[in-house]
Amino acid sequence: MNKLFIYIFLLLNLVLLNSVSGQRFPKPEFEKGHTQPELHQSPPRMLVLEYVDVIVLIVALSIASYLIIKKRSRRGIFWLSVFSLLYFGFYREGCVCSIGAIQNVTLALFNPNYNIPITTILFFILPLIYTLFYGRTFCSGVCPLGAIQDLIVFKPIELKKWTQAVLRIIPYIYLSLSVLYAATASDFIICKYDPFVGFFRLDAKFYMFLLGGGFLISGMFIARPYCRFFCPYGLILNWLSRFSKYHMQITPTTCIQCRLCENSCPFDAIDKPEELNIQTDKIVLIRKYLLLILIIPSLIFIGGYTGRQMNNVLAKVNPTVQLAEEIFRYNIKIKNQKNKLPENIEVEGFKASGKTEKQLFTEASVIIEKFKTGGMLVGGFLGLAIGLMLANLSVYKYRKNYTPNKGECFSCGRCINFCPIKIENNIKIIIKKYEATQ
Amino acid sequence: MERREFVNKGIRLSLLLSLAGLTGSLLQNTFSDDYVWQIDANKCTQCGRCVTSCILTPSAVKVVHIHDMCGYCDLCGGYFKPETKNLTTGAENQLCPTNAITRTYIEDPFFEYNINEDLCIGCGKCVAGCDAFGNGSLQLQVRHEICVNCNQCAIATDCPADAFKRVPANKPNLFKGFSGEGADFKT
Ligand code: SF4
Ligand code: SF4
Ligand code: SF4
Ligand code: SF4
Asked: Is residue A243 part of a domain?
């Protein structure tokens, strides 16, 4: 009987001790003075530095805009690219970049629990505003991803028009998917598949090095492949730049149609002059417009429908859905085999979380349901994008001079050097003429 | 041409306004600090993925020893393999695959354990051992001077226990049963 009491006493003691200090073995009181080592803290990067980054961004954007619009200096842009590559790329190691910030912004809009840091908002919004005024000067020499590709352009080849047209659809897909996955808090795919961040950090998974290396090697011949055919932020910039207030011009005064700049752009971003070609046949015209009016809505509809049907596939990226599938598969296996299976990491992790399977499955099905709307929106958006591309083909273009395509042009300034007209020359000519009249 | 300029101007203005609107709505949900990634030690199951999933090699995740919580045990569950008979510092007795833990004699029967973070690969074997047999004073944490603070942490995507969280940079630790600043315990 006595023994039992002692046991109970001990047990009580243990429980009490546990609830007081949370420890099985209390920290000893040392007889000799023993100094306990300090907890090794690891402070994150100083907040001030994040704001310094924003200031550097503003300064770099202003310099780029000045260099390309006022100074018209390719060499200046080149050195700015080198600086941005070193600062935003290798020193800052890439995160958060403006491209990736698309996802943070989306997450913040759809997820009230996520507070977006002010610096991230600024990294997202500042280049957009500059682009609305000066064209894609962010791409010209501020974006580290653009800079690394721009600096390795070696022997650019011209891509067939239709190849370009097809490849141009990829950014629309990439942008809409990254927004979808960020909005559903599934994953940040832009960051996951950022091909260059591994180089900036000089450390990455093997497949990322492979991907980045592929981009760099092909980038020697297909100039700026990521910018032109993948970058989702570039797509937004492209659309904003079309309405920009100022934009770089190839010639400082008027084009004399010398055609020297015709093939100077490694990105095929120079629009050639086009004859005014007015279709006079009313019937043909009406048929064309009718077709467009019918085609665009039906493309949107088809896209939306397909997207909605694909919700199961799309939702597979979401970790909760993945886990639910894993557990489901595991349960089936157990049923079939009847003997004990080794638990895998996912199952163990789930069991430790204390959630019930039912909770998990309801959560997953709610998410899959959300992907119905999401998939529909993504599909509809893609349909609209393709429709507008088609419509663009049949719009009359009239152009007298060689001009950079405001959407595609990265404002890199290469073509400027090909134009034989130089402001300095002009002034000299004017001065000469003036002297002759004296 | 003039009409076109006019249309462009209108579109530009409306785009500017919508950018302003977007910024405004984002600002309602903002904070002036930055985020860093941290492991919620309450949730971590020491699955071992932290070793391989981090984009850095070796991983930015290391084990942290909270001496305030430690019992200074002779038979340390985090230091020795469970079947060890002679409590000596022989490599064959150590749980840690890289011998990153040092054991120092203080006074009978107490020993102090320290982590050599350069050797630690973040596998969490010691964490599991200390959790099972000791006080749980060894905990996995993201070390911020190593971590490059990826916008999307690669381990967070892979973590089966959903233990990775974005935490404000001025509170960068998430210990279990310990607030991280002083010698206070929270259970
Ligand atoms: S297109 Fe994208 S990757 Fe290229 S420079 Fe512009 S923002 Fe950077
Ligand atoms: S600045 Fe000239 S060369 Fe450079 S992308 Fe624009 S059009 Fe092409
Ligand atoms: S991946 Fe998650 S559960 Fe596994 S060791 Fe890291 S934090 Fe712990
Ligand atoms: S944020 Fe990046 S560097 Fe830091 S732990 Fe995660 S994967 Fe590793």
From this structure: yes
Q: Is there a contact between A34 and B107 if contact means CB atoms under 8 Å apart? A: yes
Interface touch B157/A187, C-beta < 8 Å: yes
Q: Do A203 and A337 reside in the same domain of the chain? A: no
Residues A387 and A411 in one domain: no
Q: Are residues A294 and A154 both part of a single domain?
A: no
The reply to whether residue A349 touches residue B161, judged by beta carbons under 8 angstroms, is yes
Asked if B134 and A25 touch (Cβ cutoff 8 Å), the reply is yes
From residue A128, give the alpha-carbon distance in Å to each of A185, A413, B13, B27.
24, 20, 13, 17
| Cβ–Cβ contact B67 with A under 8 A | yes
Is A120 in the same domain as A188?
yes
ipTM score assigned to the predicted complex: 0.88
Distance B5 CA to ligand 3 centre (A): 57
B160·A244 Cβ contact <8 A: no
Q: Which ligand approaches the C-alpha of residue B59 most closely?
A: 4
Q: Is residue A159 part of a domain?
A: yes
- Residues A315, A228, single domain; the answer is no
Cα–Cα distance, B72 to B87 (Å, whole number)? 14
Which ligand 1 atom is the nearest neighbour of the CA of A144?
8
Same domain, yes or no: A70 and A192: yes
For A117, the enclosing helix (H) or strand (E) is strand A116-117
> Which residue owns the Cα nearest ligand 3 atom 2?
B159
**Pair A233, A126: CB distance under 8 Å:** no
pLDDT in tens, A326-385: 888 888 888 877 666 666 788 888 888 888 889 999 999 999 999 999 999 999 999 999
* Total tally of structural domains belonging to chain A: 2
DSSP per-residue string spanning A196-256: SHHHHHT---HHHHHHHHHHHHHHTTSSSHHHHHT-HHHHHHHHHHTT-S----SSSS---
Same domain, A298 and A421: no
Domain that holds residue A374: 282-394
> Could you tell me if A324 and A409 lie in one domain?
no
Relative to beta strand B164-168, strand B138-142 is unpaired
Q: Once rounded to an integer, what is the mean pLDDT over residues A210-235?
A: 95
Smallest CA separation from ligand 4 atom 6, residue: B153
Tens-digit pLDDT profile for residues A163-207: 999 999 999 999 999 999 999 999 999 999 999 998 998 888 888
The CA radius of gyration of chain A, in Å to the nearest whole number, is 30
CB distance B138 to ligand 4 below 6 Å: no
CA of A82 to the centre of ligand 2 (A): 18
Instruction: Quickly count: other Cβ atoms within 10 Å of residue B86's Cβ.
Output: 8
> Is residue A32 in some structural domain?
no
Q: Which of A56, A102, A98, A63 is nearest to A80 (CA)?
A: A63
